[in-house]
Fold this protein.
Amino acid sequence: MSRLDVNRSGEMEVFVRVVELGGFSAAARAYRMTPSAVSKLVARLERRLGTRLINRSTRLIQLTPEGSAFYERSVRLLADLDEAERGAATSAAPSGRLRVNTNVAIGRLYLLPIVTEFLVKHPAVTLDIVITDAVIDLLEERTDIAIRSGPLKSSRLVARKLGETRMAIVGAPAYFQRCGTPSTPADLDQHNRLGFGYARAIEGWPLIEGGTPIMVPPAGNAQASDGETLRRLALAGLGLARLAMFQVRADIAAGRLVPVLEDYNPGDTEDVHAVFLGQGGHLPARVRAFLDFLVAKIRVA
């Protein structure tokens, strides 16, 4: 078989997607193929190259040393090909539908105020904005970019940092007038501690007392699906909430919320990232343009 009879770039692209998404089934969904068709394509690639690229098992795939080297070279070649096609296109302007997912607080404070500027600059792009604190699967939800707070799980997602923010336990003056102000971590046992209604990377409020880290679980009469709702419950005087400073800085400055137990605050921070599938050099123009715009315009602190 001559090289002209083989779609080598297509084989590379499918192989790269298998690696980045962690399996044949995920890659098959991305390309609307069957898992067996993707598996056969990779097997055909291995036969043509005369080496095994992937060790397969029922639950995971593992690259061989040859597979790792081929993956890295494939990513670079596909990025070069993508760049060549963009350069040769009659119009390289960003266009098409762009789906962006963000949590409620980032959406309210950072994303929504700047989307008009982006769309004026790129009128051929259509933004589809989904605001929720739930962590979604970008592939299943057909999402191009997600903005996430907190530690990133190990994955094939690529991330660009948008800043970091420290955390604080806050309450409203009306709540402290009614229930008193905690002065030590032990006092929290007597307070209404509002929390999230879903599993988080850190299940509790980390504090430090006498040089010893401690974890205080939220235990109150209300939970919420997002940080913005917790903020509003705290503003209403229902209880204490542990929130990112970027969410409550204006409330603290205005006296609507008051931070407590700052002497016991470990000074931990949450990073904020824009995450996406694929390598930075192998992205649609609309995705690349929006990522660059986010990095230039958003600096969470």
Observations:
- Residues 65-88 form the longest helix (24 residues).
